[in-house]
Amino acid sequence: MTFQEQIEKKLERRVTIVGDKVFTAAIDSSVSKESEIDWRREGYKTLDNRKVYELPEDIKSRMLQMIGRLGLNMVQRTFC
């Protein structure tokens, strides 16, 4: 299990890195009271509110450096 402090958010960003390619989607989970805290609870209600999101270059660069140091080829993370 992973526990973390609850963070108020406007968007959730799902980042997938494959090799040196970074793909990011933004999910507006505020469309439903049930998905406000965790978009997966009512994920189907967020389908129309998902869009491509461009991470700032410095964040992309640091993420690529980190997975390079760890020797990983693929990573998927969600950020608020």
List keywords for this structure.
single chain; 80 residues; alpha+beta; four-stranded antiparallel sheet; 4 strands; 29% strand
Description:
With 80 residues, this protein is an alpha+beta fold. It has one domain (12-79). The chain has 1 helix and 4 strands; from the N terminus they run E-E-E-H-E. Strands 3-2-1-4 form a 4-stranded antiparallel β-sheet, with helices on one face. A hairpin with a 2-residue loop joins strand 1 (12-18) and strand 2. The longest helix has 14 residues, at 57-70. It is globular, with a radius of gyration of 14 Å. 8% of the residues are buried. The model has no long low-confidence stretch (mean pLDDT 82).
What strand line-up does the widest sheet have? Answer: 3-2-1-4
**Rough outline:** globular
Instruction: Say how many strands there are.
Output: 4
How many domain modules? 1
Computed structural class: alpha+beta
Helix fraction bin: 10-25%
How are the secondary structure elements laid out?
Blueprint: E1 12-18, E2 21-27, E3 50-52, H1 57-70, E4 74-79
Antiparallel strand pairs: 1-2, 1-4, 2-3
Can you describe this structure in just a few lines?
The chain has 80 residues and is α+β, with helices and mostly antiparallel strands. It has one helix at residues 57-70; strands at 12-18, 21-27, 50-52, 74-79.
